[in-house]
Fold:
Amino acid sequence: MSARIPTACFLLLIATSGSFAESTTSQGVFTEEQAKRGAAAYGANCAGCHGADLHSTDREVPDLTGRPFKDGWVSKTIFEKFEAAREMPPREERSLTDQIYLDIVTFILRFNKVPAGATELKSDEQLLRQIKIGDPG
Ligand code: HEC
Structure:
């Protein structure tokens, strides 16, 4: 009994104060709805090269699932992958809105079995820098 409650209160305090550095996607940081919107935008803007099932058929174009997801996405922050997505498509960098790029990132995460949650993810740089992509297994 003794030490547990104060410890819990202290953890809650740092978690809510905003100075606590990190959370992970295993907590459900985007919604199913958002990932669905992302799927539509991905289909229109990305699938032509990266494949509808995130497996590309072109050797020059990386897959966005399987090994490349584990190696290139897991443990990175959402911000890093959001930045990578904004560089796309080649020669048409930033042709979409930040929110649409972020929706596409949530679709890629969802496709790779990252859980959805109750709140939409907003394209707030500070926030995105604090969320690490957890290994969905
Ligand atoms: C014209 C073909 C083409 C289109 C369309 C395209 N990509 Fe790419 N993408 C590439 C190529 C080629 C690379 C590897 C070279 C590079 O990084 O520039 C790449 C690399 C990436 C990477 C970096 C690899 C990784 O796993 O981090 C991401 C993320 C990505 N693309 C996401 C997207 C998204 C999101 C869209 C749609 C908005 C998109 N791409 C549209 C060709 C394309």
In short: The longest helix spans residues 4-17. The mean pLDDT is 91. The pocket of heme C is lined by residues 45-46, 48-50, 60-62, 64, 68, 72, 84-85, 88-90, 104 (CB under 6 Å). The CA atoms of residues 31 and 109 lie 11 Å apart.
